[in-house]
Amino acid sequence: MSIVIRNGTIVNATGAYPADVLVEGERIAALAAPDSGLAEQWAAGAERVIDAAGKYVVPGGIDGHTHMEMPFGGTFSADNFETGTIAAAWGGTTTIVDFAVQGKGTSVLSALDKWHSKADGNCAIDYGFHMIVSDVNDTSLKEMEACIDAGVNTFKMFMAYPGVFYATDGEILRAMQKARDTGSMIMMHAENGIAIDQLVLQALANGQTDPVQHGLTRPPELEGEATSRAIALAKVTGSPLYIVHLSAAHALDAVTQARDTGQNVFAETCPQYLFLSLEDLARPDFEGAKYVASPPLRPKEHQAELWRGLRTNDLSLVSTDHCPFCFKDQKELGRGDFSKIPNGMPGVEHRMDLLYQGVVRGEITLPRWVEISSTTPARMFGLYPRKGVIAPGADADITVYDPTAQQTISARTHHMNVDYSAYEGMELTGKVSTVLSRGRVVVDDNGFHGAAGHGRFLKRDLSQYLV
Ligand SMILES: [Zn+2]
């Protein structure tokens, strides 16, 4: 089966140029100058020719931070691996890396088995796992080694959520030593959960129960402090450190400083922190609950700092932290008590589109758009050059993107299994027109053509991004 994508502009992290793409089977076989004899030959012999005139041909997006079917506060995030990966494909994302969860008192390897049983045979696009380590002990530290052998070499820990996922500094230190010894990487949810929990209790005692309190009780200083502390622990142990969902200028300052000294410290941010703010959390009539995620949405002035970080590579990439909960029945669990609102927002479908608005607005360049949404995630998480680049030999994970099409985001038209959109009514320039996952057209103008079970588990190499 061969497919030729003609007349488009290839955009990789290194630049943009016109070329035709020959896809054979699951891989990109070759590129050719448009209108060359070779390109003509390919088109004549191809089973399918996709006309990409006026469009960008980019490596499929890689969302390095999703939570499908994740247990939280007595409920589960609303997308399972099937609905979530189909929604991702609609938005031009062809790989996700989801978080398996080791609960307290359970084993790391049994958590990995459990996540395989949820995902295997159900994903429409390729997928990998990170491992949340919430119980650090001799056994789980040993199990991290088996996890790495199984292609899961990024371990997330929490300085937030005491009593649930929270790890002490001593536990973090021990896990970081294991990461240093094995070449793996610690990912950190950096918020000072001990202090935050006191602020939450005080707010509730004062009768302050609205969703906006979620933001006010998690001040940016406590994200900055935790980020600095994680960086210090990483420095002492020599472990690489990856800060997940960085939201605050205070935390970015700490990351920037560490990077300036050559430390292996990296951070991602998420579209919600670039486009939404504390004002959304303050929406009346419990509407703010739709915007409850941790860290919380910040005052608007943080957004410019985050865009600056994306330009200077102090923020290396953008993931979604996709963790959808329906407004009805799920977010509503927190009516009258903001601390009971499930933490998380939907986003896996719109990451590429939202980031493209950064190109439209002049915040980032076109190649940087590809770099932060696909190429760097591939390198950061050990998938390059199989993923993250349009080049011969790479998997044919390809998104053909129409840079001039207009669209309006709405829960009525999105494909995520959630009853609201955090971006309802937002008008965007640019839209996905065709998506290939390992050589199979899964989305085009006529709809979705993929299937649950097409997606394969990705056994990831160690990070290719370390300095
Ligand atoms: Zn998360």
Automatic annotation (TrEMBL):
Cofactor(s) in the UniProt record: Zn(2+)
Enzyme class, UniProt record, top EC level: hydrolase
Keyword Hydrolase among record annotations: yes
Hydrolase recorded as keyword: yes
Documented EC number(s): 3.5.2.2
Stored InterPro entries: Amidohydro-rel, Hydantoinase/dihydroPyrase, Metal-dep_hydrolase_composite, Metal_Hydrolase, Metallo-dep_Hydrolases_sf
Gene3D superfamilies: Metal-dependent hydrolases, Urease, subunit C, domain 1
Pfam families assigned to the protein according to its UniProt record, in alphabetical order: Amidohydro_1 (PF01979)
Stretches assigned to the Amidohydrolase-related domain: 56-442
One Gene Ontology MF term: dihydropyrimidinase activity
Alphabetical keyword list: Hydrolase, Metal-binding
NCBIfam families in UniProt: D-hydantoinase
Protein's UniProt name: Dihydropyrimidinase
Natural source organism: Micromonospora purpureochromogenes
